[in-house]
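> call design_seq(struct)
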């Protein structure tokens, strides 16, 4: 199951991807089937928090739609928002989780021995095909980072590694857009990582049942059609189970929380000379089994 949050004719809906490029608007279809508006929540966070009950109802609506053909749209008829347009808290981000990326940002001495964590504010989040502000008033070194992101589906604390995957709802794509000069100037990551519009996300959350093995997913980032990053989640220094376990040791992870798992080598700062983003640049991040997130710099 692939779920998105979209706008259609001025209204916001949670949609499920059908065959080809078809999208099913869940709330109006569910209302027609069940006769009332609250059969399926029209909010991604609420669906995630409802768990298996909501998923069962979505499947029921899907089967009904196959017979009627109602409430199906083409992808180009809607505007994609981020799957979770307003996260309830900062996005957790793992830094330097690929050996070659750690080296391109410094040297072998920069390969972390422990998980490196920072966060991005909820106001960074934008959707597929939405413009990334260039923020030329505060940065000259805007950079891209293509990443697999994990969406938590079950609240937990002190989650053991062997149970970590059970706490996942699904997976999505994030572009961890970064102002490298702010990152260096302030000697920490928050400001350089939290400029408005610096976390494109989506277009879909793919339920974990569709991802056979999250440990072997290809990740490719292109800028203006040029491949800049090419990696695989098998190259993680810290696997997803360990990331979830470490974060949750003293902090509760809640349903709907988002964790970006790190970026492969090939970021703009890693080139000599650097290849920072400029207005008009188009960034496409593709993750195997999930899709492609595309945004351009304004």
């Amino acid at each position: 199951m692939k779920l998105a949050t979209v706008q259609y004719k001025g209204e916001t809906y949670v949609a499920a991807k059908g065959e080809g490029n078809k999208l099913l608007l869940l709330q109006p279809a569910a209302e027609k089937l069940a006769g009332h508006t609250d059969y399926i929540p029209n909010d991604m966070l609420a669906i995630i928090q409802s768990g298996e009950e909501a998923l069962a109802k979505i499947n029921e609506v899907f089967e009904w739609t196959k017979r009627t053909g109602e409430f199906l749209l083409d992808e180009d008829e809607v505007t994609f928002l981020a799957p979770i347009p307003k996260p309830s808290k900062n996005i957790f981000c793992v830094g330097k989780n690929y050996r070659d990326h750690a080296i391109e940002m410094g040297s072998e001495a920069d390969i972390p021995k422990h998980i490196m964590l920072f966060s991005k504010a909820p106001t960074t989040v934008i959707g597929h095909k939405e413009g990334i502000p260039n923020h030329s008033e505060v940065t000259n070194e805007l950079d891209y980072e293509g990443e697999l992101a994990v969406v938590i589906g079950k609240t937990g604390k002190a989650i053991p590694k062997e149970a970590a995957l059970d706490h996942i709802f699904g997976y999505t794509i994030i572009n961890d857009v970064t102002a490298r000069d702010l990152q260096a100037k302030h000697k920490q990551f928050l400001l350089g990582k939290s400029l408005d519009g610096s976390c494109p996300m989506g277009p879909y959350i793919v339920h974990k049942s569709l991802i056979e093995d999250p440990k072997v997913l290809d990740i490719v980032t292109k800028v203006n059609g040029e491949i800049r990053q090419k990696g695989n989640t098998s190259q993680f220094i810290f696997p997803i189970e360990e990331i979830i376990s470490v974060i949750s040791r003293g902090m509760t992870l809640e349903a709907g929380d988002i964790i970006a798992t790190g970026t492969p080598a090939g970021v703009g700062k890693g080139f000599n000379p650097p290849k920072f983003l400029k207005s008009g640049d188009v960034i496409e991040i593709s993750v195997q089994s999930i899709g492609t997130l595309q945004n351009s710099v304004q």
